[in-house]
Structure prediction request, 59 residues.
Amino acid sequence: MRKTSSRESNGSTSALTALKKISTAKAIFISRGDDSGTNKKEIAQWKLAGITPSGTWYK
Prediction:
């Protein structure tokens, strides 16, 4: 039986892939930017993806 990582089991792998695609395409991403729990989770996901979002595409 194959072991799954915590990222695989909670769906984060898909989120990380999506964030990488957004960053590569420089597609507009609107962050909550309000220091809420949701915003903190978003920032953690960007960090896990190895991306520091910035520029005109990240608002």
Observations:
- The mean pLDDT is 85.
- The radius of gyration is 13 Å.
- Residues 12-48 form one domain.
